[in-house]
Amino acid sequence: MRRVALRTFVSLATLLALLILGLACGQVSDLWTLLALCLLMLIGGFLRFSVAPNYLASLDSVVLMTVYVIAGPWAAVIAAAVAYLPQVRRRIPLIRRVFNGAQRILATAAGGIAYTLAGGPVGDSALSHEGRAIFATTAATLAQHVANAALVCLVIWIDGKASPVEFLRQVVLPTFLPMAGYGFLGLLLAVLWLGGLGPLAGLVVLVPLLFARWALSQYEVEKTAQAATMRAFIQVIETKDLYTRGHSERVSEGVGMLGRFLRLSEDRQNALEHAGLLHDVGKVGVPTSIIQKPGRLDDSEMDAIRLHPARGVELIGNIPFLEEVKSAVLHHHEKFDGTGYPAGLSGTNIPYFARIIGIVDAFDCLTSTRSYRPARSVEETLAILEQDKNSHFDPGLVDAFVRLIKKDGWKAAEVDQPAPDANVQAGFDHDDLSLGSSGGASGSAAGPT
Amino acid sequence: MTAPGDVEGLELRKLGSGVVIVLAGVGLGFTALLMTARNGVTEWPFVLTFGFLIAIGEMVQFKVDRSRNRAPIATSAALAYAMLRGPSLATPPDVAQIIAVTFVATMVGVGPRAIAGLRWDLVVSCRRVLSVACAAVVFAAVTPADLSWNGSWRHAFPLILAMLLGVLTAGVVDALVGAGQATERYNKPFPASLRDELMVMGQIGMAMGLGGVILAAGTSLLGLWAPPLVVVPLLLTQFAFRRFASAQRTYRTTVRSMARSTEIAGFSSPGQNARTAALAVAIGNDLGLTPARMEALEYAALLSGVGQLALADPSPGGASLLRSREERQQAAEIGASIIERSGVLDHVAEIVRHSNDPYRQGRANNSDIPLESGIVNVSLAYEQLVGEGTGQSPDKAMESIGLGIGAEYDPVVVESLRRVIGRGFRF
What is the value of pTM for the model shown? Predict the structure, then answer.
């Protein structure tokens, strides 16, 4: 049903686009100018850059403004069609390729209508009607982007696989203003062109745009590099204990799921994932002999363990994270009833992120294999969390987490871990609820002892 | 590590040649101001608009790389003001007025930053005044007075060529001054500093310069409609760039923090990694390495001990000289594979891998081993001998390192170390 609707919609859009294109071909007057503009559009089309994750914008929407001003809306339609040609070879399903082409032509036509309605000057008269040109270009940019977004939203809605609202929120809103702002450069390009430079103006204007593109891509590069470095580093710390391998990354993933479930803003979502990844980083300061020691720990050894949150903050203190990351690392072993460490905070005095990490931390520990016990099942663990929810955890967050896991499931710890060792009497994991007062809970989750 | 180059505000003690630059900039500015006051100001609306842009650009400057302050909008606006022509302007501003406007607006922009306690740097601002002055002189000299943007390519082409020449002049002057300063601060050979500066000029400098060209040509054609049209995209680009610069800073501090993990774990004494890195950077500068290699070198020196984390027991005091060579090489190998795992620091991993190879069995016969490994090796050894706790005198340490030239240590690096220590490098 949806398939048919989708095909009908795309066919209709394509027919309309072809009709407009045909009309436009009848309106060509200055072939050489049009050719030069098409060439510029092609160059602009090659220079794509990511304005948001998974979303590429190309510079041809900037050049499009130039075409409106120099040669008028009809020429813009032709230029937009030509600029799309190289992308026909992209490896995506045929229906998407067809739709993308039609979408471009229709959006360009919408921009052209806006440009004409706003009384935009075409050709040399733009130099003497500056105000009008600026107004009409702004209108055209807006109309073009709105038409683009509307068409994509329609397709997403008909297709039914993703939410059009999400698309608007994640892609259209953040990119709208920047793309409109860069559209002004298209007008300037036209002005320099008409002012005597001709196609050479393209060279002068495209270089700053290229630089903008470079800066945008470098941001992603640095972000990726940082994430990769942090993960490698965490793995080093985890080599100290075979059983906790992958723990930090799973906690980071788990708090990420919970954060999205709680609809955190993007900044805080990133911060929460970082905090989840780094929460045990201070373990590097705990002697390996204590971490790997089989059997119960005495008080002084336990004190060494209790230092690890503060050590972690000491280590990451200089990294310009949000303040919430540091407080989460420091307080992730606090308990809701105030019996945790290092500060003995209780209730909502415990930082929000620390409460989130505390839950996922305990959950991952219980669902992983330990030297003294096999992994527990997810249902069993959720029941333990429910039982401890008023003593250890924030009850509201536990409810949210339980609902989330029941809905989306949990990837079990698939990292190769050594099997539990029957000879070990009571090994130790500082996160483990099933151990006595030293590590975590008492009573309900009583372990193998 | 506090690099000697982190001059902020006005600290005369550290400025060195900066004093000359500031004096030249301020002197030139005041002279131009006096001349303009006597001759009268032409085209006030343009003076105010561009002065405003320069001041705002100066106010929203930001920090890239280690010590360079950047105010791209101020630079573009000042360059553009130097290259305005008709039809919008009946009389283009003369050179004195251009310098005066740039100077006054720059000072107006720096003022609020200094009052608000933000980072400011008078030397960088004065460098801009000087390079814009050069661009103005060159542009005025090569452009006949009757050229204007009248719509014909006969006027437009010479104008755009003159503008590009002016912008290029400004870039080269700024690169020369910057290279001189880098040579003075970091004792980097002048040709290497100039190469680095010219490379930066080719990227950021070109974008700023062409931004100025577009602004100038647009304003000449459209009048005061043009500045907002150019400034909006420039601001967007600056925003993107700023975000990038802050991500880069975060990344760098992350690597530094990682390096401190060996100290927290008790494998090295507090500050040991930072001291080793400071020395390695000084040697790298002395040998004129490119910025990319310098960065890898610094990371490698910081992270050289990270392999010890996988070893069970910390060695007392972190004295890796006390360990056997096999053990050190094994730790270096483990460290390299840890660093490699990140997938983004392969070059750093390569340096760390060979950082404990003796010269004779390593670099002397295998040119694939990077020079940086030799630098890290020597830096580690020198830090062990002189650093906190062990406390030998630099001369004595030099002597014992000298015994290992050619066998243990790379002669080129030891020679460089001698120069660095001779110039007064102390931890």
Answer: 0.82
